[in-house]
Amino acid sequence: MNDCYVKEFSATVTATDNNLIELDKTAFYPTGGGVMHDTGWLLRGSDEFLVMNVVKKDGRVWHEVAAVGLQVGDAVIGRLDWARRYKLMRMHTAAHLLSAVFYKEASLLITGNQIDTEVSRIDFNMETFDKDLIGSFVTKANQLIKQDAEVKIYFLDREEAMRIPAVVKLAGALPPNVPKLRIVEIAGIDLQADGGCHVSRISEIGEIVLQKLENKGKNNRRLYYVLT
Ligand SMILES: [Zn+2]
């Protein structure tokens, strides 16, 4: 939540359910908010447990491992598949950047997203299906990447956060009773309440390439993008 660049950490097993493992702390991101989960390993001495999936259920994070054997109280090292996680971070920050451009240029709102390692997609509420205009938004996002803005992550009291228009705009999607909101800010470009992992500067995104556009019915368009 504070440092998206933690690649390895120490933890203790606090609960098991067959091949589902809960830890006292974790850097593994569970699938959520339209973003795919991390993978990696839990290491106990020379034993390696492959983490294939990570899910969040009732506020608890469960690591789905490929083999049983971990016990409550075991000390483990968690190690992320960093290549995968870093791709997801670049893709996720790219989605925020695109949403900022779509909103600034045409007041378009993102209605859904699927962030994955190779191809990601965002849905947005656009009345017309103007492919050239959408293409120009991607070009604009790539121009912004060259400015290399910093991505800041911090927590604000809910009351204070609710005075920021960009946060209020999305407030319907927030859990109602959280006293502190985690803010992800692309300096000078975008600000959102968000629980995900991001790169620390937007130059790390690389270049956004529009792969495909789809017409998903009334006011609903879908953009697929890849990164180079
Ligand atoms: Zn996000």
Element layout with pairings:
Layout: E1 8-17, E2 20-23, E3 40-44, E4 47-57, E5 60-65, E6 75-80, H1 82-106, E7 110-114, E8 120-125, H2 131-147, E9 151-157, H3 158-161, H4 165-169, E10 180-186, E11 190-193, E12 208-215, E13 220-227
Antiparallel strand pairs: 1-2, 1-6, 2-5, 3-4, 3-6, 4-5, 7-8, 8-13, 9-10, 10-11, 12-13
Helix pairs in contact: 1-2
The structure holds zinc ion (ZN).
Shape: globular
Strand content: 35-45%
Q: Poorly predicted ranges (pLDDT <50, ≥5 residues)?
A: none
Our measurement of the CA-to-CA distance between the termini, rounded to an integer number of angstroms, reads 27 Å
Q: In terms of structural class, how would the helical and strand content be classed?
A: alpha+beta
Mean pLDDT: 94
Number of strands: 13
Strand order of the largest sheet: 1-2-5-4-3-6
Q: Summarize the helix and strand pattern as letters.
A: EEEEEEHEEHEHHEEEE
Taking all Cα atoms into account, the compactness measure Rg is 19 Å
Output the number of helix runs: 4
Tell me the helix content: 10-25%
Structure in words:
The chain is built from four helices and 13 strands. The protein is of the alpha+beta class and 228 residues long. The strands form three sheets. The protein has a six-stranded antiparallel β-barrel with strand order 1-2-5-4-3-6. Strand 10 and strand 11 form a beta hairpin. Helix 1 (82-106) crosses helix 2. The longest helix is centred in the middle third of the chain and has 25 residues, at 82-106. It binds zinc ion.
